[in-house]
Each structure stands twice: as C-alpha cells, then as structure tokens.
Design brief:
There is one protein chain. The chain is of the alpha/beta class. The protein folds into three domains: about 1-80, Translation factors (Elongation Factor Tu (Ef-tu), domain 3); about 85-190, Rossmann fold (3-Layer(aba) Sandwich), CATH 3.40.50.80; about 200-250, no CATH class. Helix content is about 20%, strand content about 35%. The chain has helices at about 60-65, 100-110, 130-135, 155-165, 180-190, 220-225, 230, and strands at about 1-10, 15-20, 20-25, 30-35, 40-45, 50, 55, 75-80, 90-95, 115-120, 140-145, 150-155, 170-175, 195-200, 215, 220, 225-230, 240-245, 250. The strands form five sheets. Strands 12-11-10-9-13-14-17 form a seven-stranded mixed sheet, with helices on both faces. Strands 1-2-7-5-4-8 form a six-stranded antiparallel barrel. Helix 4 runs parallel beside helix 5. The longest helix has 14 residues, at about 180-190.
Length: about 250
Amino acid sequence: MLKIKKHVDETPNIKTMRFDEKLEAMPGQFVMVWVPGVDEFPMSVTYTGSQFGIAYQIIGDGTKALAEKKIGDRIGIRGPYGNGFILKGKKMLVVAGGVGMAPVAPLIDSAKKGSVDLVLGARVREELLFEKRATAAGAKVHIATDDGSKGFKGFASELAKELMDEQRFDQVYACGPEMMIAKVVDLASMKKVPIQASLERIMKCGIGICDSCALDGFHVCKDGPVFSQVELKNLDDLGRAKLDPAGRKVPV
C-alpha cells in the first residue's frame, strides 16, 4: 500500500500519480493497481526509479475512483510485470497515440539526446500527452492531431509513414490505439525496420493465469505487453479481434 505524493492533471482526461517510493522497471512494463473496495487493473509505469509514477486515462469505474484519490491516500501496487522495451539503434522512431505515450516516455527519457524522432498523436491538441517532457529529453517531436488543431492533420500512423518515407530508422517503437499499431507494424515490415510495440488487453491477474489477455497463443501480461517484430507479424488478431470481459472474441 503506497501513499500518493503527487496527483497531476496532464490532459482533460489523463492524470499522473507519483509515489514517494522506488520502483525499478523497464520502460513498457506495468503494475497492477488496487483501489480498495473498487477494483484492480493494470497501469503503465511512466516514471521509474525513486518517486515512481503511473499515468492513466479516466475511462471506467476503477479509474474514476482512482481520480478521486487525494495526496496522502494509499492505493495498492504490485509489480512490475511483463516485458519492456529494449533500447536499440542510433536513430529511433517512436509512434505514440493518446495515453500510449505513457509507457514510451521513460524510453525516450533514457535514450541519447537527438536519437529519437517522436510522432505524438491525439484527437485534439488538448489531449497531447508529455510533449514538453519529450522535448526536454531531447526528442524531435512531430505532432499529429485528428482535427488538425496542432501539427499534422490526420492520424499518427500517416505522419509516421511520411517520416519513414523520408528517413531511415534503425528501430521503431509504437504504443497507442491498436489500429494505429497495426498500421505502424505494416509500415515497419514494408520498410524492413525492426519494431517493438506495446499492446493492450483486459488483464485481471497480470501473471498469465486468468487467460483474459490471451492473444493468438500468447498472454499479453506475461509474454508482452511489449512484443518484437517476430511475434507481431504472427499475431493474426492484431487490429482485428480481442476478448471482452466475459472472454468472448469481439472486434477491436
């Protein structure tokens, strides 16, 4: 049970929560967050080391209850779990959509200044997450908004294609809406550039027991959430299907 040290509004519906505790985690790993009396759910680690932190989007009862927590309140944390991103190459392209920026932010923090081009996407400019943080870390930031309120008008995957047509990258990283990820995986394959992508599925246990995050023979919680190009190209359900809370396969 950890005491909340900071609780910050990053966008209208994304918040970060920091703790006065140390957690060593790889970029891309996650923790299971327990809000007593409400629910337990996975959250990406977005700050590692001392005063580690999580970022979350307010989308359901659990995150609504989490958003009501005050500084000094306590919540349960277990982890970190899963596989994280592995820093590779001298010139990297990171494609992040919406709250998908949360798990790749520590990756950008740990990269050499000037080695990362970041495509940061959101529906509108107010929902762009950690733009200043990425710039401070030395990334070259390229903005894409669905409505054109800032930067490129269109999807992050479309802007990523423009960059990949113009430049050669050693490694691509992606996290965000699954349709965006599927398009970036196809782009990387076409350009013959290695890719690592973080996927999202319903997770109830976080350790590969409950089967709720099953995906084409993998468990996203244990075998992911970060998958390599070799694994991604064999995921038939990527961008197509997922399991709902009752375990039924439904369209993404």
